[in-house]
């Protein structure tokens, strides 16, 4: 069986997509992937309050998925931003769509040029 599907994050954090795409019985788990060790680590990561430990758990969980290979990643969507050298403070994130840095416009300044 094969399928072509993609995913765009709702917010830039692994807990937005890893458990939903690869958790046993998850609604968007179209591959049928099931790994009890992944499920346990996901549960742990979702409850973890220390951000460093939480991200480490998600890193391990992602490695499990990639090692088990329920998917083959063909491409990653990416965007490019052309910024003049006198534009200062433009902060881009992985969540930027049509408006790069749209969350941080209050930090943008234009230097003399």
List keywords for this structure.
2 strands, two-stranded antiparallel ribbon, 113 residues, mainly alpha, 2 domains
Short synopsis of the structure:
The chain has 3 helices and 2 strands; from the N terminus they run H-H-H-E-E.
Integer average pLDDT: 86
Number of domains: 2
- The N- and C-terminal alpha carbons lie at a distance of 58 Å
Would you count the extended β strands for me?
A: 2
The largest β sheet comes out as:
2 strands, antiparallel
Number of helices: 3
The succession of helices and strands, N to C, reads HHHEE
List the helices and strands and how they pair.
Layout: H1 18-22, H2 36-47, H3 51-68, E1 87-88, E2 109-110
Antiparallel strand pairs: 1-2
Helix pairs in contact: 2-3
Question: Can you put this structure into words, describing what you see?
Answer:
The protein has two domains: 14-68, no CATH class; 80-113, no CATH class. Helix content is 31%, strand content 4%. The protein contains three helices and two strands; from the N terminus they run αααββ. The protein is elongated, with a radius of gyration of 18 Å. The mean pLDDT is 86.
